[in-house]
Amino acid sequence: MLNEADSEIILDVGSGYCKAGFSHEDVPSVVFPTIVGRPISEDVLPGVALDEKFIGNEAKLRKDALTFSAPVRRGIVQNWDEWMGVVDHVLNMEMKIERDDFGIVLPQPTTTNRESLEKIAEMIFEIPKVNRIFLARSAPMALHAFGMTSGLLVSIGHDVSSCVPVLQGNVLEEGIRELNIGGSDITQTLKMLMKEQKPTLSSFRNFFHDDITKAMMERLCYVMVNENRDSRTSPRPRTYSLPTGGTVNLGRERFLAPEILFKPGLFGDTSNAKGLQEICCESIEALRTNKGEEEAKSLCQNVVLVGGTSLLPGIPERLKSELVHLLPWLSENEITVQAPQRRQYAVWRGAAQMASLNSTKSRWTTRQDFEKYGPSVVHRKYL
């Protein structure tokens, strides 16, 4: 059994949340929103410089005095200095790492480009105590968390969703599809619907309002299993108690907001022409064309949902129903959509499990490798 002294550090810096901990842990011990806050003016926080940064929960505690930025959006790093600030915050303030020699596992979105991988290596090896890093795609790691090496991984995260086919631990490039919609977009849609029907809520400051609306979404929203049938009904209103006092009743908003996952243009947004079911269908059809029908069928038996937003009730049933309709060459029994427990931590847990495997030792990039060959050495190890 590994202990903290023998464990590697698992660090997943996502668009919505940063998850960190030691590889011997079953779930991340550190979870906080990936946000950076700076003082609005010199007056709001006496003695604090305007360029001082507050990260994660520290920023949320001072929400009325700060302006916020997101170091990562849609799975892409927007500000490398802020990204590194998040990493430093995790190691020094949250985990308080004192060891002189340790490694870090950094799961990456499937579409992370070569330049970003090299930049990550450069910045992480600027930390003197880091002796090795393990950069790997998140999809195989997520499947590994559930004891799988093959499957169609459907990730629904903070602000991006994706469908990634994995065969024997290897990502099949031709089947990768992405959708720039996630939990934050559902939250914004819910806020829009509430403002239309409950205009007094518009007085909330934006970030605070988003926080409240996000909590409402997670607690009360659900996805219609049968859109044609369920859209004609009115669900029993549910009441949400506001932290500022008072209550809000939600009715049809509960299922209308998440519907943008499957119908992105429902409220006029045409930036995403395809819904979740359609990118999954495209991925499966690409596999059928390039790998054959039997290979595609085998992966359809393991359609695996992961990501925090995938916890919304109704998503597994709705996705299967849509795929059965869109893929007439597959019977209902040939499509299995799995929604495992603790799937919001799937990538992190898979990374923790893989960190100590003998089979992955060759995929670590050491400081010696980096100093000898330069940043491009990471591509030799990255799969």
Automatic annotation (TrEMBL):
InterPro entries: Actin, ATPase_NBD. Signal peptide: none annotated. GO terms for cellular component: actin cytoskeleton. It holds the Pfam family Actin. Belongs to the actin family. This is Uncharacterized protein. It comes from Ciona intestinalis.
